[in-house]
Amino acid sequence: MALSPELFRALGALCEPPDPAHARLTEALGLPGGADAEAHTAVFVLQLVPYASVYLGPDGMLGGRAAERIAGFWRALRLRPPAEPDHLAALLGLYASLAEHEYAEAEPARRLMWRHARRTLLAEHLLTWVPPYAQAVAATAPGFHAAWARLLTGALAAEAQELAAPPSAAHLRDVPGPPRPGDETFVRALLAPARSGLILTRADLARGARETGLGPRAGERAFVLRSLIDQDPAAAFGWLAAEAAGWRKRHDSAPPGVPAGHWADRAESTRRALTDLHHAAMEMTHVS
Q1: Which of 110, 232, 237, 244, by CA, is between 20 and 30 Å from 6?
Q2: pLDDT class for 3, splitting at 50, 70, 90?
Q3: What is 5-173's CATH number?
Q4: In the chain, where are the structural domains located?
Q5: What does the alpha-carbon distance between residue 129 and residue 117 come to, in Å, rounded to a whole number?
């Protein structure tokens, strides 16, 4: 049975800055508590920005080809793309609107057209990144945000089964290969989720420093990660390999209907590369 479009609109609204109306949405969705401005900033600004391009782009950055492709989808529907066309709230709002058009359409051919647009949005621009993103949110922020993430994943999985969404998408077909040891862009590639299969937040790197006993450094994620590797390659690569193994398990546990093959394959390739680097660094330590 198709879910209410309002569910997706509400889930999208809850990843935007807190508003008085969010209390009603939270209650209606049965989510625990709520998120104040500080909690919202901690999750959606400092750790896990809700923009598709960050998780689908080759460099893990905002904008670029992924954002342009999503803006093109808006234009294909004869809609003016919003200022942030790849923001999760915008995409879920658009998904809700397409479903409403489909349900309200009496003419079979036009109804089928709206359904095709909805299936395309789901398969190309939501299922390609939201499930692993939601897993990262759930792991980073317990309570309200974790419950929000689980509800979002379940809703998208139900839609994927109901619409028989295809498992492949142009976004992921165009992603460069997994991180390659020795490549000067290796660290950046590790931080590009669609390339590595991992989502590593600032909080994750701080945890990595604690777990390995290395000294944390302040700065952007690439700088922090390089500093951990420079301090103790064996410890850093060992920790990263374990993170990759954990992400492989997360992808393998994706609910029915969610196509996680690309993500699982990339996480496994990354795990192998990091394991080799860990072993090589350990041998160098023993030799020295």
Answers
A1: 110
A2: confident
A3: 1.10.3480.10
A4: 5-173, 186-287
A5: 18
pLDDT tens digits along 77-128: 999 999 999 999 999 999 999 999 999 999 999 999 999 999 999 999 999 9
A 10 A CB-CB count for 96 gives: 21
Residue type, 255: P
Report the C-alpha dihedral over residues 222, 248, 194, 79, rounded to 10 degrees.
-130
pLDDT in tens, 115-168: 999 999 999 999 999 999 999 999 999 899 999 999 999 999 999 999 987 776
- Both tokens of 242, joined, read 């374990």
Distance CA(265)–CA(52), nearest Å, equals 20
